[in-house]
Specification:
Layout: H1 2-20, E1 25-32, H2 37-55, E2 64-71, H3 76-87, E3 94-95, H4 100-113, E4 117-119, E5 135-137, H5 142-155, E6 160-166, H6 169-184, E7 188-195, H7 201-212, E8 218-222, H8 225-237, E9 246-249, H9 251-259, H10 265-269, E10 275-279, H11 285-300, H12 309-330, E11 337-339, E12 357-359, H13 362-370, E13 373-376, E14 379-382, E15 393-400, E16 403-411, E17 415-417, H14 421-424, E18 463-468, E19 478-479, E20 486-487, H15 489-499, E21 507-512, H16 521-529, E22 535-536, H17 544-547, E23 551-552, E24 557-559, E25 561-569, H18 583-604, H19 615-628, H20 641-670, E26 672-674, H21 681-686, E27 691-694, H22 699-705, E28 714-717, H23 720-729, E29 738-742, H24 743-752, E30 756-759, E31 766-768, E32 771-772, H25 777-792, H26 794-802, H27 826-860, H28 872-884, H29 892-900, H30 903-932
Parallel strand pairs: 1-2, 1-3, 3-4, 4-5, 6-7, 6-8, 8-9, 9-10, 18-21, 18-22, 27-28, 27-29
Antiparallel strand pairs: 10-15, 11-12, 13-14, 15-16, 16-17, 19-20, 22-32, 23-32, 24-31, 25-26, 25-29, 25-30
Helix pairs in contact: 2-12, 3-4, 5-6, 7-8, 8-9, 12-13, 15-25, 18-19, 18-20, 18-27, 20-27, 27-30
Length: 933
């Protein structure tokens, strides 16, 4: 029993040892077209990579890579067959294919058999991991290359490109990515020119001829390396390599140029001035050693083709497989294959599908490959979450002479730059428009001037220009003797701008409308957006909802919404002089005149002889002084400080009143009055009165959507006569209270009818422009031409030529003069009244103080009983005077009598009484001194 257990233990140990043993060799497949520009470079690079892996003891630890290659012959059918034959040989991974089309087909095979597929040249972005989980792209996806092209297009401010591409999975996938990338830069593919695979020269000639008839002169070429050079030879014959053209070529051309060891000067003459992209591979010692080794082996094998960037990616793909297998084996996994019961031969088939086996460790191998992280010839070989290589970058070349010049780089990290991407990776990313840079380019035709990238299409079709035909306002647009003879201010501006363009633009005017009713302008703009028209010319206001669907030029005339209302001439009246002020204003002003007169009289009465006399005379003085100040003709002088202070303030008030009265009376006698009382947009909105607008224009939607005016209040009008009739009838007669329209129309309308006026101010600011399809280069060029017309003064001359009717007199442009009420002056009146009251307060305080002194001096001046006998004689002489003096001044009547006294008399009396007091004091002291003696 013990022996049996020992035997079983030994067998288990042997099985474990056998399970952990590494295989002596592992089969790896390679699938590509041997005789092709990419295949010739990749074949030798893959062989050298296998030799280097097998010679490196740090990788695979004694396990040898066994390379099995199959030639796809540039055929999807044969590529599929070769792939199936490769699967029969129990390969753990496949390197290739180089064709995106074959990649799509083979990906279905490797998905079923769980064999990872590492492609070093299939760049179609639609080869995605979500659809093909066993597909790994070990090169840069065309998604990034098309973003690089979009950045170049945006850098030179082109808006449209023509895409010339091979009509297969590779070409269609790349162009689809290009369209998305351009859309993000506000550009687009204006024309797609697909070339069927394996096309002859006649087919390519037809495709290029049709592309040359289009407006875009920016050609993006995305075809196969082995047939692409035919395009430029034929384009040269069609004179498409001349000045004004732009050719941007994807990385296939760089592979051709790098692979051509002895370049044909004749072929190079066909591609002068092209911009070419090439996968960026950083400089390194390993790369230089590989290039030297590759060249030596190629020379020994008499390989005439040169090395291109795809060879570097093929080399790194082998190393990625080696690292993946190494990690797979180190984790204890075994390389085993099993049959799929679904794959069996039936009905006598000789396909031998049963030989296809599933790689049992395919899922684990796939995960190890996705974790690959090493530095190869192309830089870091590492995959992100989307299974794309990190740090995609391109060199941007400019073909010239017998070679090409490096003019910059593009990386997904920092966009366009003249600095190598590996340097920028150590800095913060900067994709701002200021940071994007490229060196100078020599364009086709040996030109150093950046091409415009667009010309008027040479397809024999004139520009379809829609022109609205209105029922009125013929100064702006009119048709005479057929639709080809369109005249008016807007047409003259358009024709003058077209003549300034550096290229001819034949135009065909298409009239819209029957001339009896205005067409809807928004519908015309929608026709432009829908490609029913190429442009719309006329009195089109540049408003928000239109700019969303069409491209507008620079405004050629300023415009804005204004209100037109009927006015009536003010009728003369015998009492017109009373109209400047309201009744309340007249009453308060008169009362203030009298009040100020009384205040000044009080302040001056005790000191100024001109303000004294009989009661009748003093009342007359008060009224005369008060109202004479209105004309600054008062003859009475003021002598007191308080009186002068009050008078100065009052004269200032009188000045304001006189000026306001004069201005208001002038306005009432000269200006016109509003018939409806509407003075601006706020009055119009708040009222319930009907509003007229020009049919077909944006005014209706503006009033409803922006100003919330009920639609029931809006009345559409078409002609100038309808404008006048509606305003004359007014709201009560079925007309309108006012019309809201743009200023140019109003100017024309008022030149015919002078009994209407603009009220208020412009409450919108816009202009008229010509509409084109979105991102049309014509819009930008015509904007430049309109600015040129404006700067030269020709735009104003065209305006003066059409707007020649004399306008109404501008003397009565002001309307709606109003009477001045108390509300405009109550603050001034209040200040004046307070100052008067303040002066009276000071005056009465002074009077009370003076009255107090006056009373005390009178009491002190009366004789005592002891001195009665001695002063009898003096008292007798003054008896009469004491009888005339009041005995006491304490009553209100006595106070008023004191106030009525002259200031000078009061002072004289108080002075005399003071002297009497002193004399009495001296007389009483003399008898006392005699008695003591």
């Amino acid at each position: 029993m013990g022996a049996l257990r020992l035997t079983l233990l030994l067998l288990a140990l042997l099985a474990a040892a056998a399970a952990g043993a590494r295989p002596s060799e592992v089969a790896v497949g390679a699938l590509f077209t041997f005789d092709s520009t990419i295949g010739r470079a990749a074949r030798l690079a893959i062989e050298l990579a296998v030799d280097d892996v097998n010679a490196d003891p740090t990788v695979l630890a004694g396990t040898q890579l066994k390379l099995i290659t199959q030639d796809t012959n540039c055929s999807g059918f044969f590529g599929t067959i070769e792939a199936l034959q490769l699967m029969e040989k129990n390969v753990v991974a496949v390197i290739g294919p180089q064709s995106s089309g074959i990649g799509h087909v083979i990906s279905h095979v490797v998905n079923e058999l769980h064999v990872p597929l590492l492609s070093f040249a299939a760049t179609d972005p639609t080869l995605s991991a979500s659809e093909y989980p066993y597909f790994i792209r070990t090169t840069i996806s065309d998604y990034f290359q098309m973003n690089a092209i979009a950045s170049i297009v945006d850098y030179y401010q082109w808006k449209e490109v023509t895409a010339i591409f091979v009509d297969d999975d590779y070409g269609r996938g790349g162009v689809s990515a290009l369209g998305d990338a351009l859309a993000a830069k506000r550009a687009r593919i204006s024309y797609k020119a697909p070339i069927p695979p394996n096309s002859n020269a006649d087919v390519i000639n037809d495709v290029l001829f049709r592309a040359n008839m289009m407006e875009s002169r920016v050609m993006v070429v995305h075809v196969n390396p082995d047939t692409g050079m035919k395009i430029f030879s034929i384009a040269n014959k069609l004179q498409m390599m001349a000045s004004g053209y732009v050719w941007i070529v994807t990385d296939w051309l760089a592979a051709v140029l790098d692979s051509s060891t002895s370049r044909d000067l004749k072929d190079m003459s066909h591609i002068q001035g092209l911009i070419v992209l090439r996968q960026h591979t950083p400089e390194s010692d390993a790369k230089n050693k590989f290039i030297s080794k590759w060249n030596n082996v190629a020379r020994n094998r008499s390989i005439t083709s040169g090395l291109n960037s795809y060879g570097y990616y093929a080399y790194d793909s082998v190393w990625a497989v080696a690292h993946g297998i190494d990690q797979f084996l180190n984790s204890g996994q075994q390389i085993n294959f099993s049959t799929d019961p679904r794959l069996h031969d039936s009905n006598g088939s000789t396909l031998q599908l049963s030989t296809l086996k599933i790689f049992d460790g395919g899922e684990q191998m796939l995960q190890q490959l996705l974790l690959t992280n090493f530095t190869g010839l192309t830089g870091p070989v590492q995959f992100n979450s989307d299974r794309n290589l990190i740090r995609p970058a391109y060199d941007i070349l400019n073909v010239g002479g017998s070679g090409s010049q490096l003019i910059g780089y593009w990386s997904n990290y920092s966009g366009l730059s003249v600095t190598a991407p590996e340097i920028l990776y150590h800095k913060p990313p900067n994709t701002s428009s200021i940071a994007q840079q490229l060196h100078n380019v020599v364009w086709p035709g040996d030109s150093t001037t950046t091409p415009r990238g667009w010309v008027f299409p040479n397809n024999g079709q004139p520009l379809r220009v829609g022109v609205p035909i209105k029922a009125s306002f013929k100064e702006l647009l009119a048709v005479s003797r057929g639709p080809d003879n369109v005249t008016g201010y807007c047409i003259d501006v358009f024709n003058a701008a077209i003549k300034l363009l550096p290229y001819p633009v034949p135009c065909q005017f298409i009239t819209i409308g029957d001339g009896t009713k205005n067409p809807n302008y928004d519908d015309i703009i929608k026709m432009v957006a829908a490609n029913s028209l190429d442009a719309a010319v006329g009195d089109f206001a540049i408003v928000r909802n239109r700019t969303r669907i069409a491209e507008f030029t620079q405004p050629y005339i300023e415009s804005g919404l204004v209100i037109v209302a009927p006015v009536k001439q003010a009728t003369s009246s015998a009492w017109a002089f009373l109209k400047p002020f309201t009744l309340e204003m007249w009453c308060v002003t008169g009362a203030l005149f009298i009040f100020v007169g009384i205040v000044v009289w009080i302040l001056e009465h005790r000191t100024n002889e001109e303000f004294r006399g009989s009661p009748r005379r003093q009342v007359i003085t008060i009224f005369w002084f008060s109202f004479s100040t209105m004309f600054f003709s008062h003859r009475q002088n003021t002598v007191s400080a308080l009186g002068r202070f009050v008078l100065i303030i009052w004269l200032f008030v009188v000045l304001i009143i006189n000026s306001s009265y004069t201005a208001s009376l002038t306005s009432i006698l000269t200006v016109q009055q509003l018939a409806t009382g509407i003075a601006g947009i706020d009055d119009l909105i708040s009222s319930a009165l009907p509003i007229g607008y020009q049919a077909g224009k944006f005014t209706r939607s503006y009033l409803i959507e922006e100003l919330s005016v009920p639609e029931s209040r809006l009345v559409p009008l078409n002609t100038i006569q309808e404008y006048a009739d509606a305003l004359k009838r007014g709201p009560k007669g079925g007309g309108v209270a006012a019309i809201v329209d743009e200023m140019p129309y109003v100017e024309i309308f008022l030149s015919y009818h002078c009994n209407f006026r603009v009220v208020g101010q412009e409450f919108t600011k816009e202009g008229w422009g010509f509409a084109f399809q979105r991102d049309s280069p014509l819009a930008a060029d015509l904007s430049t031409a309109i600015l040129q017309l404006s700067e030269s003064g020709q735009l104003q001359r065209i305006h003066d030529e059409w707007f020649t009717r004399p306008s109404c007199s501008s003397d009565d442009n002001e309307v709606g003069a109003t009477r001045l009420g108390l509300g405009s002056f109550w603050g001034l009146f209040l200040v004046c009244a307070l100052i008067c009251l303040f002066a009276l307060l000071i005056f009465f305080i002074r009077i009370c103080w003076q009255y107090s002194k006056y009373s005390s001096s009178e009491a002190a001046g009366e004789p005592s009983a002891a001195d009665a006998d001695a002063a009898a004689a003096a008292a007798a002489s003054d008896a009469a005077e004491r009888q005339r003096r009041p005995s006491r001044l304490g009553s209100f009547k006595e106070l008023m009598q004191f106030v009525d006294k002259k200031e000078e008399e009061v002072r004289r009396t108080m002075k005399r009484r003071s002297s009497e007091k002193d004399n009495q004091a001296a007389g009483s002291s003399d008898p006392q001194s005699m008695a003591s003696a």
